[in-house]
Amino acid sequence: MIENEVGMLAFSRAGHDKDEIFIIIRADGEYVYLVDGKNRPLARPKKKKRKHIQIIHDKDENLMTRLEKGLQIFDDEIKRIIKLYKQSN
After folding, report:
1. Domains delineated in the chain
2. For every one of its 89 residues, what pLDDT tens digit does the chain have, with 9 covering 90 and above?
3. Maximum Cα–Cα distance for the chain, whole Å?
């Protein structure tokens, strides 16, 4: 299991959202909660089993810090981070 996966990017490996990129906003036990800011906003995160995602070892340090401190984040920030990742790869 990967330490500090909150704030990291992840590919969905199974389900109707297969091959989509998300950001992990919360993790507990066997599940993670994913958002993309568009179809899955912060108000309605996707609950997914850990075995159905592939962690991308790329992260936004600012976002990780804000999530850990419990500060407010917005869907536009999530969309921007995912867009920047897609452009760089």
Report:
1. 8-88 (2.30.30)
2. 555 688 899 999 999 999 999 999 999 989 999 999 999 999 999 999 999 999 998 778 888 888 888 889 999 999 999 999 999 88
3. 32
